[in-house]
Each structure stands twice: as C-alpha cells, then as structure tokens.
Amino acid sequence: MSSQHKPELLAPAGSEESMHAAVENGADAVYFGIAGGNFNARARAKNILLDKLADTIAMLHRRKVKAYVTLNTLAFADELPQIETLLREFASCRVDAILVQDLGIAALAHRLCPGLTLHASTQMSLTSAEAFSLASRYGIRRVVLPRELSIRQIQILRQNTDLELEAFVHGALCISFSGQCYASLNLGGHSTARSANRGSCAQPCRMSYTLCDTESSQPRPIFSPTDLAALPLLRQMRDAGVFAFKIEGRLKPPEYVAETTRIYRSAIDAMIVETPPQDHTQDLERLSLTFSRGFSTGWLEGTDARRLVPGNIVAHRGTPLGTVVEVRRDAAVVSLMAPVKRGDGVLFENENEPDRSQGGRVYEIFHRRASVKEAQAGNKVLLTFANGSIDAECVAAGQSVRKTDDPRMEREIRRSLQSKRPQEKMLLHINVHGVTGEPLRITAEAGNGVKIELQSDAPLEEAKKHPLTAETLREQLGRLGETEFELGELDAAVDGKAMVPLSVLGRLRRQIVELLQNQTASLPKQELKPVQFGPPLKELRESFQNSYSPDTSPANPVYHVLFREAECFSDGVTLSRYLEEGYRSFYAELRGYKEFEQAAQSVRLVGAEFVAVAPRILKPGETKFLKFLAGLTPDAALVRNLGALRFFSERNIPCIADFSFNIVNDLAFWQLEELGNILRITPGPDMDEERMSVLLNLVPAERIEWIVQGRSPLFTMEHCLWKANLVPPGKPCETICRSLPLRVRDRRGAVHPVRSDVHCRNIIENAETISPPQCLSQWISRGLRHLRIEHNSGGIDLR
What we know:
It is a single chain. The chain has four domains: 8-173 and 225-306, TIM Barrel, CATH 3.20.20.70; 318-408, Elongation Factor Tu (Ef-tu), domain 3, CATH 2.40.30; 426-521, no CATH class; 556-790, TIM Barrel (Alpha-Beta Barrel). The radius of gyration is 31 Å and the shape is globular. 28% of the residues lie in helices and 25% in strands. A hairpin with an 8-residue loop joins β15 and β16 (358-367). It has a twelve-stranded mixed sheet. An eight-stranded parallel β-barrel has the order 1-2-3-4-5-6-7-10, surrounded by four helices. The protein is α/β, with parallel strands linked by helices and 799 residues long.
C-alpha cells in the first residue's frame, strides 16, 4: 500500500442526527449499531432501528458513504438464532461490513453470508501479525487496532500482513485492552447487564481509587486516561500503513460528530495534496471545547504514563484559559492565556481533589474596572458568576482555569447542522456541445453515478458580440449555491461563433440540479442480485458436533494449579503437597527467564506436567519470549490470544485456551478448535452457571477447563501504576514492581491486588476471589473433568 493513499475517515453514528452530521461533514464511512439486544458495544446509543436499515444504507450509498454495522459483543449460545436473523438482514441490505468480536459470530457470518465483509473489532484484542493470520481464516478483512499500539508497532504490523488496518485517531481512551476489561462485569455483581463485552460498560475506570501501599491516601481517578487527539500525527499514521482513521464517540452528541469529522476531513485533504505541515492549535482548541478530558496522543508515540493518566481527570475539562490570581465571593481574578467571553463555561481545576473542582458560566467580565463583553489573552480580569454557582472555598490562587464551552461556537455548529447547505458536496462532471444552428447539448454526471442529458429549447444563434466560451459556461453552470453539488470538470466543445443568453444558461443549470436530485432520490434501493446464503445455523451446529466423538467414559476430575510465585516451584514442598492431593499439572506464570527455567526443572523432577503460561497480550517484537518458553519444551502452553495460539500450534506444542478468548457459545468453541492444536478451552468470564450449563449440552464437556478458585482480572493495562505514581518524572522504573507490592482500594472499601507481567503490563485483580459454583458436582457428572485453581498469596485449600 502506497504511503500516499488517502485514508478512509470513519465517523461514529450513535443516532440518526449524528449520522447526518457525519455525512454532511465529510465522512467516508460511518459505523453504527442496531437497536435492541446487547449485540453492539454501545447499547446505550440511539441505535438505528432494524426496519430502517435498508433505507439508511440506501441513503448512505447514494452519498457515496460506506455503512459499517457493529455486531461487536459476545453472544450466548441461545442468542445465536437472533444473530442469524440479523446477519441475513445485514447481507440483504448490503451493509459494507460488520464489526465483530465474538469468534462464534465471525464463524457464523463467514459461513452463512460469504459475501459479507468482516472487520475485527478492537474488542477482539488482535495485537500481532500472528493473530491477524488466524483471524483472516474466518473471513476477517480489516483489523481495528487496539489503542495501545505505537506508530512504530503499527508499521511493523503493516509489513507483516495484507489485512487493512484501522486505527483510532480521536476520542475516549480505555485504560484496559478492549475485550480484556472485566471490571464493569465483576464490580457490578457479575451481571452481564454491566458487562463491557456485552455493550453495557459502567466505566469503573473513571471512578476514584486509593493507592494503598504508598504515602498517598487521597482517592484519585488513577485509571482515567486523557482523550486521544492524533491530529498532528495523521501523516505519520498514514505513512505507517493505516488504511482508515476512526473517530470514537457513538455516545457523543451530533455537534461533537460534526466538528470532529469536519476538522479531520480538512486535515486529511490537506495532507493528501502534500501541503506543508499544518498548525493544528486552533483546531485542537475547538475540539477541546466540543469534548475533552484533556488531550494526548495516547500510546501512538510510545508510553508516557503520567501524561496519559494525570490522575485528576474524569469528565470534560475543555481548554486552558488561565490561572487564578485572587478569589472573591462568586468571582475570581484570572490571568488569561486565552480569550474569554460572557457566557463561556469555566472550570476552576482542583488537581489534588478533582471532585471539588468548581465550574460555572461567566456572568460578567471586568477589565480595569470596566465591564467588557470579551477579554483577550494576556489580560488580568475579574470573572463574576451567578450567586452560589461556585464555592469560593474550593477555589484558590494558583489553580488552573479552563474554558469548558463556548456558546458562540456551539451556536455555529448547531446552525451548520440545521442548515440545508451540505458541508460535503458531490462533484459534477459536465460535458457541453454547442454548434450554431443546433440546440445546446449538456451531459452531467454526479459523483454518485447518476447521469442526465438535456438540451436547450431553441437552436443556438450566431454571436454578434460575445460568443460562448468555456469560461462563461464554467461561471454560469458552476453557480450551484446551497445544492449538494459542486462543479468539478467541465469539457466544452463549442464552435466559437455560437452564443447563449445568460438566462438560458441559468435555466439549464436549474434543470441539471432538479434532474440529478430527482434521479438520485429514485435510485433503486436494492435492485441487485439476490444474496447467496450458506448453511444455516442449525446445519453448522450439526456439522461441528458430528465432527467430534465425545469421550463418555466416566472419569474423575483432574486438578491443575497455576503459580505466579517462583518460591512455589523452588522449595520442593509445595509441589509435593499438591501431588499428594492428586494434582496432575502445574502452570507457571512468572516474571523472569531463570524463574521459568527453575520451574520447568522442578516440575519434571516430581514427574508432573509442566505448562508454560504465555502473556495475555502479544505485541510486535514480543515473540522472543514465546520462543524462550517453547525452548523449555513444556507439555502444554496456556495461551491467551490468537498470536500465541498460532505460535505454539506451529511448533506442535498443545495449547490450553484461556478465558481471555471470551468463548461463550458453541460456535466460538468449535471455531477456536479449528484454529490451533488445542487440548482444552476455558470459557469467558461472562459465563454464569446457567449459561455454562447450556454450553455443556453443545460441546464436549471433557474439553472444557473451569477455574474454581483464584482472582478474576479487572483491567489488563499497558499503563503502569508504579511508573505513573511512584517513579519521579524522567527516571527509570528499575522494575520497582518486583520489589514494591501495590494494591488499590475502591470507593466501597474493597482492596484489589496489582501485579505486572513479564512485559511490565499491569493486571488489576478483583478483591473478591472465585469460588466453586454450586452446580460443580452436576457438571462433573456431565463430563467436566478439568478444574483449575490459580494460586493467590497465602495459599489455597480447595478441598
């Protein structure tokens, strides 16, 4: 792919109004969900009604805008018939692509609707070329990249895959890898109604937490990142191989969609014509006022923990306005670094106690004791507010002041949304043929493919003074005003003697517009070849089930234990005790290479199975560690992502698929079975006892591994809490995470352990431990054989 390609601009459409805003402001494509169910990651958005889908797609296609439908959550086995119905409708309506997370949905879509293009949602957690390779086997054509990748890592991925790469360029950031965040699910009482993987994230990352093992005892939003604004990096991202630039924001209002789409459209267009690098200061300020928790470039330029998560932001904070000089009752003297007007929204930022930050709307401005409507940067002014709107006790000299909204700008954006003048126009190619004595003939073709022909009522007369020229035709036919058309190319063949009155050209221009509009409105919506469907869900299920002969012989359960402490392998006592209790295999999830080598040796000395645990995330350049693990010749590998699955399967090392694959239905189970050398699969955390009982009826129970004790992860983060909070700026961390324990306390008093993996990624674990389900004995009687416990500090006692 050439570095000079024009990236696709993909805008959010959380409502019909937002879709209109995206289209009119230059989006090449929009992404949206369908109302009803929990099958898209923004269930709370004003999603499109299914019975309006065909008309919506037809409208978008008439405007040359692609339609991507989000089906990017997990579906339980009993919900797959609903998914089948939706997929048939999507294919029939000719959506341009669907975004998927669930392997089962991907498998069903690929087989049922082979003509339907599939994009892997960022919820699928695909972070490596190895993962891309497996994903392409079930029809994935584009990957929405996790936000945690740098531009350099994206470039490496581009060099090792043929799949299209889509990257976020603007909007909210998640602190956890998408698809690997179980905080909302677990902290919400393990209710799928609060699950991020079911489209209902309650955003616990925006809440305040206390770092327990440090001197700081003040609750702060230590997991709440800034918003992404990659506007200055678009050229670098394009050159790295990003095919599509994505704006986040299906829960944002139409004004946000309009402004972000307009600004990024302008930046992309300027980049393509190779203009000098732009100054985006003004654009970023406007974007900050539309919505911003403070902007950063996320992980695109590498990891900067303090910049990414300052620890004092939760909600919209706008753009810097100045500094408090003096506080008065319902007023403050502010030294301005940006202009301010009456009516502007202002925030007095309390960085130490964000919940005590004060905000209000400017009532009056005094400069040199005179009341003014507006004051410029560099001035010292008195800002007054309505009585009681701010608590002066929470405002202090030296505090930062931010402008959170600009009513004048908001009115401007709203007018653009209400205007009938399209922001993005279709180009017209007009061909004119004029010969004296014959009618003037015009052919016009719009960018949407509509073509019309017309001619003047009377033949052309010979000119006495002003013969018809191409310049005159361009000037008169190009006056397209507030229509949705804009004159592009004009080819004129005139004999040099003919003349046409300007009134005739004006009438012909109006006829061109009317004919094009009428034909555009009457374009056939779905006069296309019938969609060819593959085997239905019922047949797919039968084919999968018939391909496997379950082992129905009675067997006692087999216990496996996972250790994260090197001491458990080195003391010789721990392994022997578990062997005496009947455990067959030991899983090692450790931090150092020598620790793994010692673990492998110790396990083999006692004659047990050694299982190497691979990291949950695999990014470019990290297969070196997997090669090390493979070199230990483990009996199996516990894998957490598609990249690791491919790596170990290619080396004939059996794999145990962990819960991070989010397997919650039978098609996902069988699909994963097809992709690698898999011994067992652990279902995803969204599975409750009822759903698990259903799944055991559809897949071989002896191929399931269930975790009966341990801790569920809340967040899996590229962000490092140690680096952000305990290491001085600019100083190396010196692996402080290995020597200094860290825990976080939530607002309810629960204390959650923090640990880091071999690549220094942080995992926040739930304070509440997993316990064996009440129906475990029933599952065992139905064939469930493999039970895992994950060792926590202080030991475990399963029996």
